[in-house]
Design a protein that fits this description.
alpha+beta; two-stranded antiparallel sheet; 188 residues
């Protein structure tokens, strides 16, 4: 599902499609951002979109490296404006096929994708990001991850994000998600 064509009324169902993530403060300015998503696709298909460079670009970022413990796994976000953002270096910490993929990343700390099969043949993804953030950055990063996981949902359904139109199609949704996360964080 695409936000598309500047019609912001189409954004509301996307805002409510999945629950908001949670934030836990840790020592040293580290925050743990957590999201849980259920997908109607099996864990192998989700694994492929999370770890395979040919598929990560459909929802997340351009990647270089391989999904093997100890290997490099660098990321480059494609929704930069006007050009993609720089490469952020990373390394694979854990790569257990169809179960767990954890990496470090120079910009986003420790990222973990924990997969489990669901009873309906689909899968459950628990995504966490442990990263040092200033308090004013938390809502921004939460909204970003929330939206990337929406893109994963769509990519699994055969609708990869179009990065060349991302700002027109998706930035309005990011703004609304950011406002919801800011409001929730301010409410305590």
């Amino acid at each position: 599902m695409s936000a598309g064509d500047g019609d912001v009324s189409r954004l509301q169902p996307l805002i409510n499609r999945h629950p908001l993530g949670t934030v836990t403060e840790r020592e040293g300015g580290v925050v743990r951002l957590e999201f849980e998503r259920d997908y109607l696709h099996d864990v192998h298909e989700v694994w492929r979109l999370v770890t395979d460079s040919a598929h990560t670009v459909q929802w997340w970022a351009e990647t270089r490296g391989e999904a093997r413990e100890g290997a490099s796994f660098d990321l480059r976000w494609l929704n930069g404006r006007p050009d993609p953002l720089p490469w952020w270096e990373g390394r694979v910490l854990t790569a257990r096929q169809d179960e767990m993929f954890a990496i470090t990343n120079s910009e986003h700390g420790r990222l973990e994708f924990d997969l489990a099969a669901a009873n309906d043949g689909g899968s459950r993804l628990r995504f966490t990001d442990e990263v040092v953030l200033a308090p004013l950055e938390v809502a921004t990063i939460m909204a970003g991850w929330h939206l990337h996981l929406e893109h994963l949902h769509d990519a699994l359904d055969g609708h990869p994000v179009r990065w060349d139109t991302w700002w027109d199609e998706w930035y309005p949704l990011w703004e609304r998600l950011n406002a919801r996360y800011e409001s929730r964080l301010l409410a305590g």
